[in-house]
Amino acid sequence: MGETTSRSSEAYDLPSRVARYDAAMEIMHPLRAKMADIAIEVLPFPRDRAHSVIDLGAGTGYFTQRILAEFPRAEAIAIDGAAAMLELAKARLAGSAARVRWLVSDFRALRPDVAPAESVDVILSAFALHHLSAEEKLAVLRNLAPCLKPGGWFLNADLVVAERPSVEERIQQLREEGIVRRAPPGDERSASASAVRAYLDGLEANEGDRPLTLLEDLRIVREAGFGGAEVLWKEYREAVIGGPK
Q1: Within this chain, do residues 76 and 180 fall inside the same structural domain, yes or no?
Q2: Are residues 200 and 216 in the same domain?
Q3: Would you place residue 4 in the very low, low, confident or very high pLDDT band (cuts 50, 70, 90)?
Q4: 132 plus 240 within the same structural domain
Q5: Do 180 and 220 belong to one domain?
Q6: Cys-Cys crosslink for 225: which of 53, 54, 145, 186, Cβ 3.0 to 4.6 Å?
Q7: Number of domains, the chain
């Protein structure tokens, strides 16, 4: 009885945890909604037809939710290496559960048959691939490319670094100042730019962040099999890259 009650309480808490995660994302990545807008807007597919989507690194399901709302007949495969994140995604997408297949997997261990060959219209990734090295990213995308239909689109909304260290330093300064402005009062992690920097350094080291330059990312995406990829949008350290196979 106690275990059942505990599980029920945890399930009830999932929507509030999604809300807290979204609030944190608004502080750390206030351009996330803009990135989703661009990724969805650029897709040339009729909105009223059935489409198949892979969300690579679905996290809490924000981008999956956005694309399923825009394409009401679409179905998605939501993939993430963290089961806890997909539990939050399930809470977010409770109203679309019948249209989502959930898969807990490290990207590097994905089977080539995660979807049949040339069966997927869109492969989408957001804030996920920067955790991989350049070699790992290329291998993962090459593994998935055969799933995409001819003319299907790959889209990556992710973090990049500047080519020149002095430019990257300035971008990071602006990032720190923005977090201080947006953070709620009383949060010691964002009490000053130096506090933010210390928090970010620890977070990025813990998560193994390895963002690449924009040009290197674009090269990898094209080499992986998505030859029509272009830079669709960039602001400071966030970019949307994508295009047809």
Answers
A1: no
A2: no
A3: very low
A4: yes
A5: no
A6: 145
A7: 2
| Structure-token pair, residue 140 | 């993962």
Q: What does pTM read for this prediction?
A: 0.90
Cα–Cα–Cα angle for 181, 182, 188, rounded to 5 degrees: 80
Burial class (CB in 10 A: 0-12, 13-18, 19+), 201: exposed
Compute the CA torsion angle 28, 34, 36, 42 (nearest 10 deg).
-150
Q: Which two tokens stand for residue 63?
A: 């981008």
Residue 72 is part of a domain; what is its CATH number?
3.40.50.150
Q: Do 195 and 180 fall into the same domain? A: yes
> 54-110, pLDDT tens digit by residue?
999 999 999 999 999 999 999 999 999 999 999 999 999 999 999 999 999 999 999
Strands 238-244 and 148-159: antiparallel
Nearest to 137 by CA among 163, 107, 115, 116: 107
